Amino acid sequence: MNQIPVSLDNKTGLSRPAMLLIVLGMLVFAWQVALLTRDRAIQLLEEESRQQLNLYVASLQGQLEKYRFLPELLATNTRLVQLLNNPADPERIDALNRYLATINDIADASDTYLMDADGLTIAASNWQSERPFVGRNFSYRPYFKEAMKGNLGRYFALGTTSNKRGYYFAYPVRHQEQILGAVVMKITMSNIDSSWKRPDSDFIVTDPDGVIFITTNPDWRFKTIRQLPPEVHRRIIESKRYRDAQLTPLAARFDSTLSDKQILQVYVPKPVKFLVLEQAMPEAGWKVHILARMNAVYIQMWRAVLLSLVLFGVAILVLLILHQRRRRQLDRVRFEQQVKKNLEANESKIRAILENTQAGLLQMNMAGTIELANSKAHELFGYKNGEMDGESFLACFPDESQQQIRRIFASDHPQVSTIETLARRQKQDVFPVELSVGLLRLSGEEKRIATVHDISYRVAQEEALQHAHDQLEARVEARTRDLTTSNIRLSQEIDEHRQTEKALRETQDQLIQAAKLAALGQMSTGISHELNQPLAAIRSYADNARALVDNNRLEDAYWNMQQISELTERMAQISAQLKAFARKTTGQLVRVSLTAAVDTSVQILAPRIKESGASIDIALPGTELYVMADMVQLEQVLVNLIGNAIHAVEGEQIKTIEVAASEREGRVITRIRDSGAGVDQENFSRIFDPFFTTKEEGRGLGLGLSISHRIVEGMNGTLQVDNDPRGGAVFTLELDRAETPETSDE
Fold it and tell me: For residue 364, what is the DSSP state?
């Protein structure tokens, strides 16, 4: 047969310039989408950041406004005027120190102090601290200078004594229109940084010179956004505002890509771009900035670009498919026209083609009578060669398929019709076939030609595949039901476990509280003795004071009254210790002073120690140790361990209890040793079991060590027992070490 020439520029049928134009259009479209997406994302980021900035500024203003009126109110107190007029009176200084400490605690301020007209501090709330302000001169501070002008002084700086950040309010103290000095209140600003920490943005607050002094990023603190002029840098150093801070600029530069936005690129150490918004606080002279990370903007932009490229590609692909389909339809029409022209020249070749094809081929007249059939057709329908000539084509199909064949024959459409149906062999067995029937023109006469393929194997494979698919769906459904049932059962077990855990936790807390009350009950005799002695002394001092007053010995009577006051203070301390020991715990792990916990526990057990005649040796490091624990629970554990040691030395000639502490690899190790008989070897495995005790009946339930062991485990620690080589038992308590807190100072 003659070949039909087909000419295409490439597989898509498009020329190279057309392809380049499509690619260029795709890039321009993606670029425009990227710009629109970027602008919209930046707008949303700016709106969200503006809301956060307003909240942050409102929080700062609220915190400052809460303290603004307190110095002015304090300045009206006559005690301040009296002390400034007579600064050498020690009684007034002591009274004012205590008064300022009370005001400072109530206001929750950092420090409150009074300065005379020369800037010398004569009274302060931290008068009892290691580094008090009393005697220090802060006349160089701007807040003092402003107050001495008669105005409210406001100033932020690092404390020259403590190197801690704080905001100062100062107000003049007047008497008869004369300014005698200034009262100053300092509030701490340390909690503002961590409370506003966000993963996608950072806050910074700059002073009028552009120095960052408040920031959620500690690495930026005391940096500058831009390089400071030399005279400004020198002025800040002379005012000691930030002490030894270098005040170097941030490793950053402003990006001018978006002219209407402030884009700051910071190297932290990799370059990160931030959208910068700022708002002024004119009262404080600050500027508050929010730096919102633009990572999400670029992520949205690239997602939009990828999506636009995909959509553009899909649209181009659809157009190419339609274009190719149109070309193929045109090619098909040309091909059919060429076939019709070649049919007349190829009639002599039809027989050879029919005989050599692997499909059954039959030629029929328009009435459906078989005129020619190849050998494959005879084989399919069970006839010998030549037996099908003159037979009706419908006779090769069962009754249920003949109606479908008649509809094909009744159609005058020149296209080939292909169907799947059932055929019948001469021996009456039925098999599936794929039948194609078309028109054939030979020498001006129309004929029908049919192609028959036996699809028995394919149908069998499809049925087998469908059967396997049905079985798989059944198995999946059964497995899904099993998994659903298992999930429901697992959820129920988890709920039961949570309820059980909650009940166990409540029971443990109740046992801990019961153990505290039991310990208080055991100490009741000693406590009674400790309280009876001061009561008896108070009674004696009161009788003496009455007799001294009758004899007009007022100074001696005043001394007796002072002794009564000290004894009542001692009784109040005993009561406060017992109250603190009996209170319920919060269960939260915080930074706790080990020294304070040991001292409190020893004071609580002081009556028992005195009654037993034991001596207690406390060997703690010179540097105070802090642990992560709950103060109440830690005191409970120490009371239990020291109480057991007191019981262990009863009846011994040498009654010694040692409490020592050390630090190792981030852990604080506390050892409590007694000079008793030690722990029997067979009791080591049971010493921390509930209700196990070696005490005689009536002296304990065996819950103290068990509760202590559980408390220590809840604080991420360990509690172990062993016998000391020198004799007696030693309990070892290990807890996580906590960071040492900063000293409260200016």
Answer: E
For β-strands 262-267 and 271-281, DSSP reports them as antiparallel
Across 694-717, average pLDDT: 72
- Measured in whole angstroms, the distance separating CA 574 from the mean position of its chain's CA atoms is 44
- The model's confidence at residue 3, banded by pLDDT at 50, 70 and 90, is very low
Question: 633-669, pLDDT tens digit by residue?
Answer: 888 889 889 988 888 888 888 889 999 999 998 899 9
Rounded to the nearest 5 percent, the helix, strand and coil shares of the chain are 50, 25, 25
Cβ atoms of 652 and 658 within 8 Å: the answer is: no
Closest listed residue to residue 225, CA positions, set 235, 213, 237, 239: 213
Model confidence pLDDT, tens digit, residues 389-405:
888 888 888 878 878 88
pLDDT tens digits, one per residue of 493-513 = 787 777 776 666 666 666 565
Q: How far apart are CA 23 and CA 17, in angstroms?
A: 10
Q: What residues have CB less than 8 Å from 6, skipping those under 6 apart? A: 331
Cα–Cα dist 274/739, whole Å: 33
Spatial CB neighbours of 34, under 8 Å, sequence gap ≥ 6: 301, 302, 304, 305
User: Given a cut of 70, is residue 122 above it in pLDDT?
Assistant: yes
Alpha-carbon gap, residue 27 to 701, rounded angstroms = 83
* pLDDT at site 254: 73
Answer yes or no: are the C-beta atoms of 589 and 630 closer than 8 Å: yes
- Model pLDDT for residues 576-603, shown as the tens digit of each residue: 555 555 555 556 789 999 998 898 888 8
Question: Shortest CA distance to 402 belongs to which of 435, 374, 373, 359?
Answer: 435
Of 199, 149, 189, nearest in space to 170 by CA? 149
Residue 39: count of CB within 10 angstroms of its CB? 14
Express each pLDDT in 604-633 by its tens digit: 888 888 888 889 999 888 888 999 998 888
Q: How many CB atoms lie within 10 A of CB 698?
A: 5
Other CB atoms within 10 A of residue 573 CB: 11
CA angle (147, 152, 155) in 5-degree steps = 85
Q: What is the pLDDT of residue 745?
A: 47
Instruction: List, as one string, the DSSP characters of 254-271.
Output: EE-SSTTSEEEEEESSSE
R_g (Cα) of the chain, nearest Å: 49
Residues in the chain, total: 746
DSSP string, 580-645: HHHSPP----EEEEHHHHHHHHHHHTHHHHHHHT-EEEEE--SSPPEEEE-HHHHHHHHHHHHHHH
Q: In the chain, what are the domains?
A: 69-188 (3.30.450.20), 192-296 (3.30.450.20), 357-454 (3.30.450.20), 584-746 (3.30.565.10)
φ, ψ for residue 252, nearest 5 deg: -155, 165
Report the distance separating Cα 637 and Cα 92, nearest Å.
44
CB 411 within 8 Å of CB 417:
yes
Mean pLDDT over all residues of the chain? 79
